[in-house]
Amino acid sequence: MGENMSDLYRLLALCPANTEDIVQSEIAGCGGNFIRSSKGRVEFEGDLSVVYRVCLSARVVNRLLLKIHECEVADPDDLYRQAHSIDWGRFFSGKNSILIGSNVFDVSRVGFNNTNFAVMKVKDAICDFFREKEGTRPDIDKDSPDIRLFFELLRTTAGFYIDLSGGSLHQRGYRQQAVEAPLKETLAAALLYRANWKELCKDGGTFIDMFCGSGTLLVEAALIAFGYGPGLLRSHFGFEFWKDHSAEIYRQIRGEVEALISYTDNIFIGSDLDPRAIDIARKNLERAGVSDYVRLFVADATTVSSEFFSKKIGKELPQGLIVTNPPYGERLSDFDSALQLYSNLGQQVVAGFDGWGFSLFTSNHELSMKIPLKPHKVNNLLNGKIECFLANFRIDSEKARKPHDEDAISPGMEMLINRIKKNLKQMKKWRTKNQISCFRCYDADLPEYSAFIEVYKTLDGQMHLVVSEYAPPAEIPESKRSRRLSEIIRSVGVVFADDNPVVHLRTRAKQKGRSQYVRRDLKNEFFWIEEGGLKFKVNFDDFLDTGIFLDHRPARNIIREFAREIKEAGEKCFFLNLFAYTGSASLYAASEGAVTVTVDKSRTYLNWAKENMVENGFDDSFHRYVQEDCFDFLGMTTDRFDLIFLDPPTFSNTKSENKVFDVQNDHVRIIKAATSKLRDGGLLIFSNNFRKFKMDYESLADLQIVDITPKTIDMDFQRDQKIHQCYLIQKRD
Predict the structure, then answer these.
(1) Is residue 207 part of a domain?
(2) Dihedral, CA atoms, 51, 55, 59, 60, nearest 10 degrees?
(3) Is the confidence at residue 560, as pLDDT, over 90?
(4) Could you say which of 394, 425, 460 is where a domain stops?
C-alpha cells in the first residue's frame, strides 16, 4: 500500500495558536488538500509524498498526525471496545515499542475519574489486540518509542492518531544548548513569516537580531532564506516504523527537498550583551550548518546601528529587517530597568536603522509602548501558555515620537509619593505596637495610580516591595497606562530609596478565584518573614501570591486566641484548616498547642505548609497534611474538631474530575459539611474574598452566624473593606 503514491491519508497538523493560516499555506505548498482548521490544528488530506514533504519542509507545524479512527464514546467500557476494534496491526507490529500522548477533556462525561484512566483504557485495548492477534504485546517506551500514538477525547468524541513526526517538529536537532526561556523553533519561524522575512530575504535584505540569545531566530531566518527544509536536520521521524512507510519514496522526496536549497548573499547578524549567549548561539549555528553565513557580536543593543555593523563586517549593509525578543523584568526592579532598556532601544533603532523593518516580540504592552513608533501590524501569538504579540514597525525617523524627560517628577508622581509617605506615617504607631513587619502601604488611594504596594521585611534584613497593578478600564489607552506604571515604579524608588528594597512586579491579568496559586515563573527564590512571633516562607516571583494572605492577619489572631483558651482550660484543641494554601492558619493554631489537620488539593502548598510548621519546631505527629478535595475530605473523615478555618476560593474547577466550586452557589453546602464535623461548642471561621458575596442565612437557619468582617480588617486594609468577608459560625443549642 505504501508504494502507491495515490493513496490519500487523513492528516492533522498541530501548530502554535494563531498560526493556522501559515500552516495552511505550508501544507498547500507540500501538495496537501485543506479540509478545515481550528485553534492550533489544521486538518488536510495527502499522500505519502505530502507526509514526507510536511515533515521535511514545514517550519511552523509542531506535529503531524495520521488520523486512523474517530468515534463517539458512551462509557469506559465503550472506549475500550472502540479502541480494541481498530486493526492496529495494519499500522505497526506488536513487536514495536509504543508511547501514547493525549489531549483529553471532560472525561467525566463518559464516566472517567481522571485523564490517566482514559489513556490506560486505550493502552490496555491496544496491548490486548496484539496479544490476541500476534501472541505478543508492545512494550511501553517513554524515551525513544518506535511508534508514538496520540489519543484525543473531546467531550464524547474520541480520536486515535499515529504521530508521524515522532515528537514535536520544533526539535530540529540544532538547539542542544539554550539561554533562559528560548523561543521554540516553530514559533520563531512563525514570527519570521509574520514579519514578512520570506519576501524581504528575496530582495537581498539584511537580517539582524540584537538580542539573539541562543540564536534560534538567526537559524530559522537563514533556513528560510536558503530554502532549507528544517526537517532535513532531524535524525529520525515517527513514520519510520509505520507499515505504510516507503523508504524509496522517502529518499525521492528528501532528494527533492534537498535540491531546493540555494545559499544566498543575505547578511545575517546576531548580537547580545551576554558573551555566554553568543558562545551558545555559535555552537547552535554550527550544528544547523549555517555558521558560515551568520556574524555574531557581543554588543549592547541600545548602542548598535547599521553603520556600527557595517564597520564590523567591512561592507555596507543593505536595508533589511530586525526581529528580536528583548528581555523584560518580572521583578519590578528589573522591570524599571526594562522600561529604560526599551526606551533606549526605541530611540536607537530610529536613529540607527532608518528605513528598516523592525519586529518586536513581547508579552508586555507597557514595554512595547516605549518604542517611539506606531506599529503598522500587530499579530497575537502564544508563547507556550503566555499571551504575546509581534509588533511590526517601519522605521521612519520623521514619524517617530520625540523623547520626553523620563527623570522629571510629574505632578501626579508628586501626589503619589506624598500619599505613600502619609500612609507610612499614619501606620507607624500601629505597626510598632503590633510588631508588624509585613503590610500593605498603598491600595489605589489615587484612582489614576491603580495598584497596591506591600512591604515585606525578611529575616535576613532585606526589604522587599510587591507592587501589583490593578487592571485599568478598557478606555484607558496603553500609552497612558504605560506612563502611569512607570511613574508608580519611580515613585516607589523615591519613597523607599534609603531602604534599598528589592521590588517585584505583579501582573495585571484578571484571575478567576484563587488562581494566584498558579505558578508564574521558576526563579525558586524563597525567603522567611516573621508575623506574630512565627516564621513564614514566602516567594515574591514564582506565584501570583506570596505565600501568606496579609489581610487574614486578624483572622489568624482569632484562631490563636481560641486555641489558647482551650489550652488554658486544660484541653487539647483539634483544628482543621480547609483550602489551607500554605498553612499559615495551622501554624497559628499549633503555636497554642493545637493538633492540626491541613487540607488542600495542591501537593506544592501542602509541602510548603509542612515546611512552615517544621521551621517553627512543630514537626511532631500532632500535625497531619491531607492532599484531598475538601468536600471529599469532609465526606470521609470521622474526626471532630473544636475549630475549623474555612477559606474557599471564589471559584475553582478541577478539569481531571470535572468538579466546579462557586462560593456563592456552594457556600451553604460546604458550611453545612464543615459544621457537621464540629464538636459541641466548636467554632467555624468562614471567610471568602468574593466581593458580591451574600450569606444565605435562611438556608443556614439552624446555625448561629455572626458577621465579624469589620473586626478582621486591619489598618492596612481599611481602604478596601471588601478584601474579604468573615463569619463566626456555631451550631445552635
Answers:
(1) yes
(2) 70
(3) yes
(4) 394
Answer yes or no: are the C-beta atoms of 466 and 506 closer than 8 Å. yes
Task: Please indicate, yes or no, whether residues 552 and 490 belong to a single structural domain of this protein.
Answer: no
Residue 234's nearest CA partner among 287, 181, 158 is 287
Name the 3-class secondary structure at 499: helix
Which helix (H) or strand (E) segment is 642 a member of?
Answer: strand 641-646
How far, in Å, CA of 428 to CA of 433, rounded? 9
- 465: domain CATH number is 3.30.750.80
Residue 175 is assigned to a structural domain of this protein: no
69 SS3 class: strand
Say whether both 556 and 691 belong to one domain.
yes
Residues 354 and 452 in one domain: no
108 and 212, same domain (yes or no): no
Count how many domains the chain has. 4
What is the DSSP secondary-structure string of 416-437? HHHHHHHHHHHHHHHHHHHT--
Beta 41-46 vs 502-506: how paired, if at all?
unpaired
Residues 340 and 438 in one domain: no
Domain that holds residue 450: 411-510
Q: For residues 705 and 695, is the Cβ–Cβ distance under 8 A? A: yes
Nearest to 680 by CA among 728, 645, 725, 731: 731
Neighbours of 50 (CB within 10 A): 22
CATH of the domain at 633: 3.40.50.150
- Tell me how many degrees the CA angle 212-218-219 measures, rounded to the nearest 5: 130
Using CA atoms, how far apart are residues 543 and 515, in angstroms rounded to an integer?
9
Q: Are residues 635 and 556 in the same domain?
A: yes
Question: What pLDDT band is residue 181 in, cutting at 50, 70 and 90?
Answer: low
Is the alpha carbon torsion for 265, 271, 277, 278 positive or negative?
positive
* Strand order across the beta sheet in which 438-443 lies: 438-443, 451-457, 463-469, 502-506
Q: Concatenated DSSP letters for 131-157?
A: HHHHS--PPB-SSS-SEEEEEEEETTE
Query: Can you give the length of the chain in residues?
Result: 733
Between residues 432 and 472, which one has the greater pLDDT?
A: 432
- For 316, the grid coordinates are 555596507
Q: What is the pLDDT of residue 7?
A: 83
Asked which of 394, 429, 447 is the last residue of a domain, the reply is 394
Alpha carbons 327 and 325: distance in angstroms, whole number: 7
DSSP 271-331: EES-HHHHHHHHHHHHHHT-GGGEEEEE--TTT--HHHHHHHHTSPPPP-EEEE-----SS
User: 275 and 377: one domain?
Assistant: yes
Report the 10 Å Cβ neighbour count for 539: 20
Does 237 fall in a domain?
no
In this prediction, residues 258-266 reach a mean pLDDT of 96
Residue 246: alpha-carbon gap to chain centroid: 41
- The answer as to whether 527 is a domain residue is no
List all residues 6 or more positions away from 657 whose beta carbon is below 8 Å from its beta carbon.
108, 113, 114, 629
Task: Tell me the average pLDDT across 261-287.
Answer: 96
Instruction: Specify whether 419 is located in the same domain as 550.
Output: no
What are the residues whose beta carbons fall under 8 Å from the beta carbon of 638, sequence distance 6 or more? none
Angle CA(23)–CA(281)–CA(226) in degrees, nearest 5? 45
Strands of 458-573, DSSP E: 463-469, 502-506, 526-531, 534-539
567-602 residue pLDDT tens: 999 999 999 999 999 999 999 999 999 999 999 999
| DSSP reduced 3-state for 359 | strand
677 closest CA partner among 628, 643, 724, 721 = 643
Beta pairing partners, 153:
104, 158
Give the tens place of pLDDT for each residue, 418-454: 999 999 999 999 999 999 999 999 999 998 899 999 9
pLDDT in tens, 486-524: 788 889 989 999 998 988 877 554 444 333 333 444 568
Helix, strand, coil abundance in the chain, percent, nearest 5: 35, 25, 40
The domain that holds 138 is classified in CATH as 3.30.2130.30
